[in-house]
Amino acid sequence: xFFKLSETVENVKSINDGWVSxxxxxxxxxxxxxxxxxxWVTKVRFDAGVVIPAHLHTGQVIGFxxxxxxxxxxxxxxxxxxxxxxxxxxxxxxxxxxxxxxVITEAIFLLWGALxxxxxxxxxxxxxxxDATTIENEYxxxxxxxxxxxxxxxxx
Length: 156
Fold this sequence. Notes:
It contains two helices and 13 strands. The strands form three sheets. Strands 1, 2, 3, 5, 8, 10 and 13 form a seven-stranded mixed β-sheet that branches. It has a four-stranded antiparallel β-sheet with strand order 9-4-11-12.
């Protein structure tokens, strides 16, 4: 069976709008939520020197770096503008944005499943849990709190 593009293709025209921040040095804009697949797509901006503590991905992650540099310094793996990143489900790591970055780092991430952040780089004490449902709720709340017009993100 074939579909007409006009009936099936969706477009988020405001991908450069709707930025919110819950943590210092990190802003994000929601692009797509598909709760049936556990998928959440965000465009993220990181300031230089930001460290994202140890976390676990229960599903795969795909990332496209559009500006700056970020990576996994403990493994000496870094991504710069134009780079593609794939993380299989079960990946456990820290993320760091180098302090000497001259531009804001920007990337688009497609995440399936949950992102579980742990206390003090342990793998036993859960500090935060995020998935398609919680990230959508957080995004809507932050937009309202900061009087930000949310993106016209795709919901499935």
